[in-house]
Write a structure and sequence with these properties.
Layout lengths: L12 H4 L13 H16 L7 E3 L8 H9 L9 E3 L9 E5 L8 H12 L3 E5 L2 H12 L5
Parallel strand pairs: 3-4
Antiparallel strand pairs: 1-2, 2-3
């Protein structure tokens, strides 16, 4: 085989495994996977409110320059992952934080939660799709003012 030729395999097991020897690795970012499932459920279930639920892009790696720009634009540490901007009762929004088993709110997140709840908003931490569904349904069933 010449050095510039590619080697191709006709054996699918080389690429996909045969199902007996390899185990599937779990996703690296479990909170991302949870949040994605929750947003997908919401958009399929509440088609008339897809514009009301949105993510706050606070996580992830950023260069120092990008971080400084985002901070100057108003990004705050500790803000909830998802915001459901829909007035129900006397509350103007539901703030949602995704956490998987073994992950906990940071001190900054707890402080932001305390302040936002003092302002009259509802803030909830969820750990599963089922819990997210329950929280959202309870909120959306609050009586309108």
């Amino acid at each position: 085989m010449k050095s510039n030729e590619r080697r191709y395999s006709n054996d699918w097991r080389e690429f996909f495994g045969d199902g007996t020897t390899q185990k599937r690795r779990p996703p690296r970012n479990l909170e991302h996977a949870l949040q994605t499932r929750c947003v997908r459920w919401f958009r399929l279930t509440h088609r008339d409110m897809v514009h009301n639920l949105f993510a706050v892009p606070n996580g992830g790696y950023r260069t120092k320059t990008t971080a400084a720009l985002m901070k100057a634009e108003g990004q705050l540490a500790g803000v909830a992952d998802l915001i459901l901007l829909k007035r129900k009762g006397s509350c103007g929004a539901l703030l949602l934080e995704a956490k998987v088993k073994g992950n906990y709110q940071s001190e900054t997140q707890r402080e932001w939660q305390k302040r936002i709840e003092a302002d009259g908003y509802i803030y909830r931490v969820f750990h599963s799709l089922e819990e997210f569904i329950q929280i959202v349904n309870e909120y959306l069933n609050l009586p309108d003012e």
